[in-house]
Write a structure and sequence with these properties.
The chain has 230 residues and is mostly beta strands. It has two domains: 31-118, Sandwich (Immunoglobulin-like), CATH 2.60.40; 122-229, Immunoglobulin-like (Sandwich), CATH 2.60.40.2060. The chain has one helix and 15 strands, in the order H-E-E-E-E-E-E-E-E-E-E-E-E-E-E-E. It has one helix at residues 3-24, and strands at 31-39, 55-60, 69-72, 78-84, 87-94, 104-108, 111-118, 122-132, 135-144, 150-158, 170-178, 186-191, 204-213, 221-222, 226-229. Strands 10, 11, 13, 14 and 15 form a five-stranded antiparallel beta sheet that branches. It has a four-stranded antiparallel beta sheet with strand order 3-2-5-6, with no helix packed on it. Strands 4-1-7 form a three-stranded mixed beta sheet, with no helix packed on it. Strand 8 (122-132) and strand 9 form a beta hairpin. The longest helix has 22 residues, at 3-24. The chain is globular and about 65 Å long. The N and C termini lie far apart (75 Å).
Length: 230
């Protein structure tokens, strides 16, 4: 390498370091958003799926072509993002197990709490799940809040409390495709012996009852998970 080329390399190295430092010299996220999605009538958190559950879309103001960002709800219906920039955002819960609601414009600074009050498509009431005579037996009532048909009901079991239709080791489902009567007592059961490959004696599992309305991208509505020893 001749002297001229060596000088070019020596000059280029500090320039690269300078520009790298300049590019990385941005303010870090300094705010957080947290809250939950609640049944507007009962005041209870609306249970969600951990996989492909409801999401929150949020758009940060101040950009010509802002990118839509997403945040998922936890199985208990709460959410949190600790890596937000202080700014104004348009926030919308979407693709969930509730009647769609309007977007909200929110100023986020520091730790900001935001709760959503919505109408769930289905409420699952009077749930009883027990280990009875070699079976996991669930009984419950269904209250649908819209006129669309209830597509399917299910009982799901897994080692994790986030059990649900997409995360299950054992399950029992029934396709209804019908409107339901709140007074009807539904019954689902999982035979332990038949599912011995996935249910270990002496082990505790979580079981959760769910139901899905027959609407587009609607997700399952759930009752809280129950822990049962096999």
């Amino acid at each position: 390498m001749n002297t001229k080329n060596i000088l070019k390399v020596i000059i280029a190295i500090p320039l690269i370091l300078f520009y790298s430092c300049e590019l990385d010299n941005y303010t870090a996220p300094d705010s957080a958003i947290h809250g939950g999605i609640y049944d507007e009538i009962t005041g209870e958190l609306i249970q969600q799926d951990i996989i492909n559950g409801a999401q929150i879309e949020y758009i940060e103001h101040g950009y010509d072509n802002p990118e839509i960002q997403y945040l998922r709800f936890k199985p208990d219906g709460t959410f949190r993002n600790n890596l937000m920039f202080a700014n104004t955002y348009t926030i919308t819960p979407v693709r969930g197990n509730f009647v769609p609601i309007d977007s909200r414009t929110v100023d986020i600074t520091g730790s900001t709490s935001i709760d959503f009050r919505v109408q769930p498509y289905i409420r699952i009431n009077n749930v009883k799940i027990e280990n009875k005579e070699g079976k996991i037996v669930a009984t419950f009532n269904i209250e649908q809040t819209v006129t669309d048909r209830v597509h399917k009901i299910g009982l799901y079991g897994h080692l994790q409390p986030s059990v649900g239709e997409p995360m299950r080791s054992v399950y029992k489902e029934s396709v209804l495709n019908a409107a339901v009567d709140e007074a009807t007592l539904y019954h689902l059961e999982i035979d332990i012996a038949t599912n011995s490959a996935n249910l270990t004696p002496g082990q505790e599992y979580y079981f959760r009852v769910g139901a899905r309305i027959d609407i587009g991208e609607a997700k399952f509505n759930y009752a809280p998970a129950v822990r049962i020893k096999i």
